[in-house]
Amino acid sequence: MELDISVREGKSIASWQFHEGALRVLRPHYLDESGQVCFVVVNPGGAYLGADLFLLDVEVQEGAELLLTTQSATKVYRTPGSFAEQRMVVQLGDRARLELMPDQLIAYREASYRQRTHITVRPSSCLVMAEVVTPGWSPDGAAFRYEELRLRNEIHIETEDGSQLLALDNLLIRPPSGDVTGLGFMEGFSHLGSLIVVDPRVDQALADELHQVTSTHDALTGLSLTRSIAGTTGLVLRALSNSTGELNLLLGACTALLRKRWHSQEPLNLRKH
């Protein structure tokens, strides 16, 4: 799937879109008067299976703003023989903005999944991306036990002098004996939430404020800052919980703070149900 976003008469639009195979996007929506366009990625096949490979290429051109989400949870079923994989390439132009807000990733019993995201931004770009990883459940309430999840985010800053690596966020969850909740692994928790922010306005004061926001939620959280390149900095937040809903509330509160302060927008309310 390919999606190219540009600006026309003050509104962000798709100047190019293409799909072949399972993934595609629904018609664009505008959730407010900001001009930011919202696209929803759908998978009519319903799930990722063994040996599936999904390729996404997204470009947000200078000054354009994109909110990219999914129609429903990404479900990874049993993958006998070979893992399922998603590869995504993202490029943001000067003053471009991307909010990447997919629904939760659900890995079921005997699932193996790899997700590779390569992102290139300019020093003036704004990137906010959130993700929740949830184990699948059986009707009797017992947790399905997936085999492996690999989530790799590689973020580069592109300047006039070339491209420099800002952050390499490499997450591997390989449950020992099929259980992710053990001591020293996920500390008794089963669900994982992540938030990555790259913006020239990211600093220690923002990290401290987001820490205060997360402290009101039932989750174990941690934040870290990247180094600064060409005046822009990255922030990574991790949260552990036993509830998808709690993690969605936590990440939603963090993104709501950023949307209001930086863009004078209301919190997201995608109303997909």
Which descriptors apply to this entry?
single chain; 273 residues; mainly beta; seven-stranded mixed sheet; 2 helices; 48% strand
Can you describe what's shown?
- The chain is mainly β and 273 residues long.
- The chain is globular, with a radius of gyration of 18 Å.
- 11% of the residues lie in helices and 48% in strands.
- Strands 3, 4, 6, 7, 9, 10, 12, 15, 16 and 17 form a 10-stranded mixed beta sheet that branches. Strands 2-1-5-8-11-13-14 form a 7-stranded mixed beta sheet, with no helix packed on it.
- The chain has 2 helices and 17 strands.
- A hairpin with a 2-residue loop joins strand 1 and strand 2.
- The two termini are 24 Å apart.
Short summary of the structure?
With 273 residues, the chain is mainly beta. Helix content is 11%, strand content 48%.
Provide the residue-averaged pLDDT.
93
Taking pLDDT < 50 over at least 5 consecutive residues as the criterion, the unreliable ranges are none
The number of helices is: 2
Helix/strand order, N-terminal first? EEEEEEEEEEEEEEEHEEH
What is the general shape?
A: globular
Strand proportion, as a percent range, falls in over 45%
Task: Compute the number of strand runs.
Answer: 17
What level of helicity do the residues show? 10-25%
Intertermini distance: 24 Å
> What is the makeup of the main sheet?
10 strands, mixed
Rg, alpha carbons: 18 Å
